[in-house]
Amino acid sequence: MFTPVKNTKVYEQVIEQIKFMITSGELKQGDKLPPERELVEKFQVSRTSIREALRALQIIGLIECRQGGGNYIRDSFEDNLIEPLSLMFVLQNSKNIEILELRKILEIETARLAAEKISDEEIIRLGEVIGEMKDSPSEEYNVKLDKKFHFIVAKASGNNLIISILKAVSSLMDSFIKEAREAIIDKDENKETLLEHHMNIYNALANHDMRKAEKVMADHMNLIIRHMDLK
């Protein structure tokens, strides 16, 4: 639990203790922190130091201040990664191939894990998305369905870090998926091919075939490679 702070860098010590309580599991997502006055008593520091520590924790995204409701450990941290990743992509003059490489690394292994762990409910949801893809007359809506399909696969992997990373790069992925689909469906015959690929992924997952899921997801990535301008 909280211990008195006796270091000259007071607010940093407060931050370190709260961070340790989060990593050790003593504080969990959604937990409310004690009010400032109580934190002052527990840490035996000034209210100014507590406020500096809380402000710093808000800036780095570990806690959020709810108006009239106090300070809470954040429920979700993905949003805190989106902006720096997007800036990194722009400032380093990154190309689509780098997004594709990231997506390949994540999604091929994710498909393998999902084939092992996917639930009956998730299989049903994937089947429903496939049905919508078949009937959708709008490519704009198909882009949303594509994203939804891959997110269900990620969730089915049961790996929270994979899910978080995919959410964090969603702003990059959104643009990437749209560009990829536009490049692929530039030829009419590829519309059916793209749908077939999603069906192959669905069938492999529904059959809990890990090797097949890995292969068909790799095939899907290779289809994108062939039709993207990766210069």
What's the helix count? 11
Instruction: Return Rg in Å.
Output: 23 Å
Mean pLDDT: 82
| CA-based shape | elongated
Q: How large is the share of residues in beta strands? A: under 5%
Unreliable sequence segments: none
Secondary structure: number of strands = 2
Please give the alpha-carbon distance between the first and last residues.
54 Å
Structure described in brief:
With 231 residues, this protein is mainly alpha-helical. Helix content is 71%, strand content 3%. It contains eleven helices and two strands; from the N terminus they run H-H-H-E-E-H-H-H-H-H-H-H-H.
Describe the structure.
- With about 230 residues, the protein is mainly alpha-helical.
- It is about 70% helix and about 5% strand.
- The chain has helices spanning about 10-25, 35-45, 45-60, 80-90, 95-115, 120-135, 140-155, 160-170, 170-185, 190-205, 210-225, and strands at about 65, 70-75.
- The N and C termini lie far apart (about 55 Å).
Blueprint (SSEs and pairs):
Layout lengths: L9 H14 L12 H8 L3 H13 L3 E4 L3 E4 L5 H13 L4 H22 L2 H16 L3 H18 L3 H9 L1 H15 L4 H18 L3 H18 L4
Helix pairs in contact: 1-3, 5-7, 5-10, 5-11, 6-7, 6-10, 7-9, 10-11
Structural descriptors:
231 residues; two-stranded antiparallel ribbon; 2 strands; mainly alpha; single chain; 11 helices; elongated
